[in-house]
Design brief:
Blueprint lengths: L8 E8 L6 E7 L3 E4 L1 E4 L11 H6 L4 E5 H6 L3 H7 L2 H4 L5 E5 L4 H4 L4 E3 L4 E4 L6 E4 L1 H11 L3 E3 L12 H20 L7 E3 L1 E2 L5 H12 L6 E3 L8 H14 L6 E3 L5 H9 L4 E4 L1 H7 L2 E4 L2 E4 L19 H5 L2 H7 L4 H27 L3 H13 L6 H9 L21
Parallel strand pairs: 4-15, 5-6, 6-10, 10-11, 12-13, 13-14, 14-15
Antiparallel strand pairs: 1-2, 2-3, 7-8, 8-9, 16-17
Helix pairs in contact: 6-7, 7-8, 8-9, 10-14, 10-15, 11-14, 14-15
EC number: 2.4.2.64
Protein name: Queuine tRNA-ribosyltransferase catalytic subunit 1
Organism: Glossina palpalis gambiensis
């Protein structure tokens, strides 16, 4: 009797907010079941700086993101193939998602030339040339072996206007077909297309319509969080989630600020990634519900409290703000300690949102979160408008909510 075929991705919604577009689900992948909404820490080259895979397992992290462009350059596909893929190479037993390299068209624009064939990069390491086509991007990702792989898309800076935006959107759709044709491990890896179209609502709608004609297991929303206004940001996300199918996961690329995560979960997004929590740790900043603690500041030199008294990460269980103040940006271990906490903060925030959705208490969660996050400052207008669009009314008078009633803690 033959073994039952294991589907590379199934997605089941287990709870939906009765007010907003927020939902909680389980995305079953070959290497792990991933509860959504989920935040994916970014290990660009197959590692989170200063953090071991065992530490991520202790934080109950279920999925990481790595980058095809960088891994294709170093260590390269020959070494990854010999190692048996990135899971074995980096000793990570759970799920992986790989970005295709499209974002580097913006971040490394001075080193790239783009045409219909693909992107010709000049290596930042040795100045050699590398042609990244849709086919080559998929070839690298097939060797990497990530559970979810991304199409190569034509990415332009979010504030770009004019015909280049439409050109990039149509090219992205054409490149989906080339990626699909080149994909040789469809029974093991799920290819996500990427919705492009800049800040133009009609182009976003055209792109979604084109992608819906392709048989895929999930969708990404790209080309945001790159300098556009927050008003344009949330409206573009809202348009995309209105049009994307409900029965497949929706991934918003490159978004990781806490308030943005809460807003976009309310708008119907399931998956996120961002370098922010790991990068800010390297600058001595710890994430808390009210924002960030810059532990380089002298006021923390005698502060014997943990970063967050409600956090159960190993850093908060063991070390004080004072100790961290004296080593941040000086001792390499500080990067590890703060990264562990910051990743813990992100994952805990997602757990709290999943719980609130499952209890059908998500609007209350959003109200309480915004009060704690912004403190005495007014909640930004873009957030109140975004939440009103999905029927969540934020409290204008914070005195109306008693501090003792808050279920969301530091």
């Amino acid at each position: 009797m033959s073994a039952q075929k294991v589907h590379p991705l199934t997605y089941k919604i287990i709870a939906e907010c009765s007010v907003s577009k927020a939902r909680s689900g389980i995305m079953s992948l070959r290497h792990s079941d991933v509860e959504t909404p989920v935040f994916m820490p970014v290990g660009t080259t197959g590692t989170l700086k200063g953090v071991l895979p065992d530490q991520l397992l202790d934080l109950d992290c279920k999925i990481l993101l790595s980058n095809t462009y960088h891994l294709g350059l170093r260590p390269g596909i020959d070494i990854l193939e010999k190692a048996g893929g990135l899971h074995k190479f980096m000793a990570w037993p759970r799920a992986l998602l790989t970005d295709s390299g499209g974002f580097q068209m913006v971040s490394l624009l001075k080193l790239a030339e783009i045409d219909e064939n693909g992107v010709n990069f000049r290596s930042p390491f040795d100045n050699s040339e590398c042609m990244l086509t849709p086919e080559h991007s998929i070839q690298i990702q097939n060797v990497i072996g990530a559970d979810i792989i991304m199409q190569l898309d034509d990415v332009v800076k979010t504030t770009t206007t004019g015909p280049r935006v439409e050109e990039a959107m149509h090219r992205t759709i054409r490149w989906v077909d080339r990626c699909s044709e080149a994909h040789s491990r469809d029974e093991e890896q799920s290819l996500f297309p990427i919705v492009q179209g800049g800040l133009n609502p009609e182009l976003r709608k055209q792109c979604v319509a084109g992608l819906l004609e392709r048989p895929v297991r999930g969708y990404a929303v790209g080309g945001l969080s790159g300098g556009e206004s927050k008003d344009d940001f949330w409206r573009t996300v809202n348009i995309c989630t209105d049009l994307l199918p409900k029965d497949k996961p929706r991934y918003l690329m490159g978004v990781g600020f806490a308030a943005d995560l809460v807003v976009c979960v309310a708008l119907g997004i399931d998956m996120f990634d961002c370098v922010f929590p790991t990068r800010t740790a390297r600058f001595g900043c710890a994430l808390v519900i009210s924002g960030q603690l810059n532990l380089k500041q002298k006021k923390y030199s005698l502060d014997m409290r943990p970063i967050d008294e409600k956090c159960d990460c190993s850093t908060c269980k063991t070390y004080t703000r004072s100790y961290l103040h004296h080593i941040v940006t000086v001792e390499p271990v500080a990067c590890s300690l703060l990264t562990v906490h910051n990743i813990s903060f992100q994952l805990r925030l997602m757990r709290q949102m999943r719980s609130a959705i499952q209890k059908n208490e998500f609007p209350k969660f959003v109200q309480e979160f915004m009060i704690k996050h912004f403190g005495n400052d007014p909640i930004p207008k873009w957030i109140t408008e975004a939440m009103a669009a999905v029927n969540i009314q934020l409290l204008e008078d914070k005195d109306l909510m008693n501090e003792n009633d808050l279920t969301l803690r530091n």
